[in-house]
Amino acid sequence: MIVEAEGTDIIRIYGSAREVVRILYPPQVLLPVLIITAGYIAGFVLEKVVLAGILRLARKSKWQGDEIIAAGFRRIVLLWGVLAGVYVATLTVALTPAAHDLILKILQVAVILSLTIVLMRVAVGFINHYAEKAKGIFPAATLFINVTKLIILIIGLLVALQTVGISVTPILTALGVGGLAVALALQDTLANLFSGIHIIASKQIRPGDYIKLETGQEGFVTDINWRSTVIKALSNNVSIIPNTKLAASIVTNYSFPEQEMAVLVQVGVGYASDLETVERITIETARQVMKEVPGGVPEFDPLVRYHTYADSSIDFTVVMRVQEFTYQYPVKHEFLKRLRKRYAEEGIEIPFPVRTVHLRERPRAGP
I need a surface site. Which of 43, 107, 246, 316 has the fewest CB within 10 A? Predict the structure, then answer.
């Protein structure tokens, strides 16, 4: 239907309803739409049926890598179905060579970028998998993951630019010159970035470790990102430490080189106590606590070491062992309760500080 208006009074309508349908829905438009729709349907079927079936089989496999690879293609298969439909549709439409070449380049860039996304997902998946599998050896941190993503993304963008005919050499040159200016402007940021990389690479401070800084902050390392390290204290408070500060600080790592750690408990008994009996009862109590209290190391044989003749007691150290830092608190708690009860049953005295004061009467002056 063609509508012409001359002024405001004359409206001429040409054609019939058949011509209207032919003009609004010409075959050269309808066929490409059907092809793109078919590509979408094909991608949907591959996504929901084929890929879902592969994922189910991968979850049953002993190797988790196939599941990580299959999961990387989620929602990408559907996109590829649409892109394939668009490509086939362009072959059915009369386009100028320039337009056809432009559409082809756009499709190539879309495929390259989608493959880049797949590689990023797979790389991050393997990083997390091996970090969990080799805990304490292969660190999983936000910084390491983000750097991996950035490297893959830059490579994908450079390949895409090279594919569409844009030379990447001038871009790399410009990045090199501009990078110097950026490095001067962002000295602190880059210092934190490289300090974070050094912390991760050294493997001396890892996510999950319990650390204490010389400045007093202590807690579990929950994350190491491009700027700072996040430490969560037992009180559930969070300390955010710049990576440069952490790298330059004296740090005590209670989880390195292993999670297990010794627990030292100071005890004192009266001078009238039989030290052989005290040692035997103390070791029996410590051994029982380490076997029954969660977090203790049952196979470790506790030790007693006498070390001081104090003012009112003979002092000694009881050496036990726990699986990680936080388990020392329930182990100490239960040990002290049981030890006091056993000492009371055996008649062993736990003395409190006693000081004897001798008073002398001064001689009176004069008669």
Answer: 107
CB neighbourhood size of 21 (10 A): 11
* pTM value surpassing 0.85: no
Confirm if 36 and 85 have CB atoms less than 8 A apart. yes
Q: At what angle do helices 76-91 and 97-133 cross, to 10 degrees?
A: 170
Q: Hey, what domains does the chain have and what are their CATH numbers? A: 18-165 (no CATH), 187-253 (2.30.30.60), 261-346 (3.30.70.100)
Of 42-51, 131-140, 214-223, 274-283, where does mean pLDDT reach its minimum? 131-140
- Rounded Cα gap, residues 24 and 18, in angstroms: 10
CB atoms within 10 A of CB 231: 24
Instruction: Give residue 267's region: left, alpha or beta (phi > 0; psi -120 to 50).
Output: beta
| Phi, psi torsion values for 226, nearest 5 degrees | -70, -20
Burial grade of 156 (CB within 10 A; 0-12, 13-18, 19 or more): buried
